[in-house]
Specification:
This protein is of the alpha+beta class. It is built from five helices and twelve strands. The longest helix has 20 residues. It binds biotin.
């Protein structure tokens, strides 16, 4: 591993319910070093955002979690971890795909799309000790060699794009190197550079997007993402709204 600390301690499992769940229970029971990487060939109960399942065919995808201790962030800044993970995924995809042919985008909050289809997702979970953040677990699911997905999922993989098999461990190692770079930027308080990068790759930013709020479809203008990770939208009457990820659902994008 070509890093200072991310992924230096690596636990690889053949099968586990979820690498995030495994990481969280390990943290409760043993002393782990920052940067510990837990990867699995197969997750039997991979978890996604909003309580969804993350299903990935055994041995064909990257499913892993990184354990970090971002004590230098306050609770309103924790979304920066999501940004770092999304940017690192962007870099992995830029490495594996020809960026001239493929449009790689970050879909708020931290899905990664290639040509409009989801290729990767991030699930960050924080472990508190009392009211204090003690650890964060960044769980990453990246579709690599799987080429068939459930109907209606609108998903893709690196192999679906290139027609070739790719080395899963190489992708994980590449992610660790890229993530460490962004994480160290954060530690140095280089927030602007992370924010600019994230905004640059954001899907739908500064355009009208279709969303669903409390069951109601709406077309709203995507103004920005706030520092604490909420989406800032406005309507034609000039009213602005802030929603967190639980309050709003994406519908299809219009230009
Ligand atoms: C999402 O887009 O909904 C987030 C998906 C996150 C999936 C990864 S796979 C490794 C880690 N362990 C889990 O149970 N979930 C994350």
């Amino acid at each position: 591993m070509d890093t200072l600390f991310i992924g230096q301690n690596h636990i690889h499992l053949d099968e586990v319910d979820s690498t995030n769940s495994y990481a969280i229970s390990l943290l409760k029971n043993v002393n782990l070093t920052e940067g510990t990487l837990i990867s699995a060939k197969h997750q039997t109960k991979g978890r996604g955002q909003r309580g969804n399942l993350w299903n990935a065919v055994a041995g064909q995808n990257a499913t892993f979690s990184l354990i970090v201790k971002p004590a230098f962030l306050n609770e309103n800044q924790l979304f920066y971890l999501s940004k770092c993970a999304a940017l690192a995924l962007y870099d992995v995809l830029a490495y594996f795909l020809n960026t001239g042919h493929f449009d790689i985008k970050i879909k708020w909050p931290n899905d990664i799309l290639v040509n409009g289809k989801k290729i990767a997702g991030v699930l960050i979970e924080n472990v508190l000790s009392g009211r204090q953040l003690s650890w964060s677990v960044a769980g990453i699911g990246l579709n690599i060699n799987q080429t068939s997905f459930s109907d209606g999922l609108n998903a893709t993989s690196i192999k679906s794009c290139t027609g070739q098999d790719h080395d899963i461990m190489l992708a994980i190692r590449y992610f660790c190197t890229a993530f460490e770079g962004y994480y160290l930027q954060l530690k140095n308080k280089s927030f602007n550079s992370i924010n600019e990068n994230y905004a640059f790759f954001l899907f739908g930013l500064k355009s009208w997007i279709n969303v669903e709020v409390e069951g109601m479809p709406l077309s709203l203008f995507f103004e920005a993402v706030t520092e604490d990770g909420r989406i800032n939208l406005s309507d034609r009457g000039g009213n602005t709204y802030l929603f967190d990820v639980k309050q709003i659902k994406w519908l299809k994008l219009t230009s």
